[in-house]
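Q: I'm a student working through a structural biology exercise. My instructor gave each of us a protein and asked us to get a predicted structure, then write a short paragraph describing it. Mine is IS1182 family transposase. I'm not confident about reading structure output yet, so if you can add a plain explanation after the tokens, that would really help. Here is the sequence I was given:
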Amino acid sequence: MLTVNYYNDFFEIGQQKINFSLYELSLPNDDPVYTLKKVMEDLDFSGLLANCSDKGRTGYNPIMMYAVITYANMRGIRSIDRIVDLCERDIAFIWLTQGRKPKRDAFYEFKSKKLTSDILDDLNYQFMRRLQKEGFVTLKELFIDGTKIEANANRYTFVWRGSINYHLAGLLDSIDKLYSDYNSFLQDNGFGEKYEFGNAQMFVIDGIDKVRDIIEKNRKRKITKHKKLSNNRIIEIDNCSPIEILKLQKNLMTIADGESIAFVNGKGKRKPKLQQLYEELEHCGQRLMHYKECFEIMGKDRNSYSKTDLEATFMRMKEDHMLNGQLKPAYNVQIAVENYFIVHCYVSNDRTDYNTLIPVLEKHKKAFGEVLEEVTADSGYCSEKNLLYLKENKIDSYIKLQDHEKRKTRAYSKDIGKYYNMKTTVFEDEQVYICHDGRELRHINTEKKEQDGYTQTYEVYGCSDCSGCEHKSKCLYKYNPDKDIDKNKVMKINEVWEELREKSHANIQSEKGILKRQIRSIQTEGHFGDIKENEDFRRFNYRTSDKVYKEFMLFAIGRNINKYHRFLYAKLKKFEGKLQEKTA
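A: Happy to help. First, here is the predicted structure for IS1182 family transposase. I'll explain a few features afterward.
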């Protein structure tokens, strides 16, 4: 049986105090904190120091604060409270702080006021130039991908453009009636001539008719239990603003003062007609101002936002805790990678990737000059605007097309209604398409379409006579033999877009393009898989796009230094393609 002496060996009657010196303890020689210190020795922190004031009490060393936050992100720690705790208990953090114990307020002030997004970018780009000198990256090729990470916003604080449009249509009808009541009030009492007030003019609205049409269709679809139609059209209003309504209220107050009409309140008191008009105008003006603010927050590019983070957009996420396709407030996070290192980060509130490619490439040009030669991305970035930008900047495109898989099918190559399956010839210096029945489709005219500030040009080709053609059902889109008996074949071709698509498709089908697609899949998607699954980075801790960007950028810098550390200690090697399996 064990005796009490075993306890006395460790405990005394009071409390045994174990004395030891921290400086007698040591970190392993291959600890990543040494790599961090080595990297930071060659960085220029003049931008960070210039952002710190030399007046008042001397605060903590900003370089030390940056080192602590970066090392925390290298270990997957983003919580400030956790960092504060480790500065008191973890030997690596104690070594970085030299025994000092910064509190949470010091870290929050440093991250919010001193460590800006531009400073973070500059420090990361300095590190990239070091990697370029050491041969880890060339900065001549980028592998780009994006993912959606949930914002630090409540899930049920959404504001939808379609919902506002629905209520705005009813509000505009109420304001229209108020304008009529106001004009009748002035005319019936002679106040218009007496005070020289003009009639309230009817406002002009662009897009409201289509909004009302969709509202009516949705009412019918609700009865038949069909899915609602989207009602996200942008409405432009003229001569009907909160300021215009305020002018009418001032006119009514002038009349009230001139005619000694008193405003009354309380039970049993009847409000005069003028007061009723005034209060209705005020109520409508407040609602109109509220909707105006909502539209200004969304802008023209978004159809939703969160009340607790105005810059977050509701997006469809892969993590669906209610299993009903619920939308959550999130940010679209983009990374540009080369040899496992994150060269650029970009945070957007756009639900798609189409508009995120050019900003990333512009960041690369601004940071390193015109050195980029190749870009590899998935089909989410394939648009005429993006491919044309790459062509104009002499950058080879390895971007997968949206119909990449469809092109492999037999139905694609046998579709006789598509221009790419028709023969072509040249007649009088004009290209002519020959359909499956041997009839000519000649050039009719040129059409232009503007979308998101970019103009697309379409060449329209058509057949002069398709009567008697036995291939109409396969050639014409949604052919109805009863209604479309006299319809002729017409097709629109965006020749610039098609040329760019074919060039990019040829690139990704080459041996080099196949290898690049493998590398992109392994490196970019590998990063996101590691970030979300292993590091459990599924939700931001901060709000607004600037703070979200800094949070993710710090995390990316930590990952970059970890990758560099693994390369130095031969724990990671550059991916040069899948190994060929030996045959027996």
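A: Here are two points you could use in your paragraph. Residues 161 and 303 are 5 Å apart (CA to CA). The longest helix spans residues 161-189. It's a good idea to check both against the output above yourself.
Q: Great, thank you!
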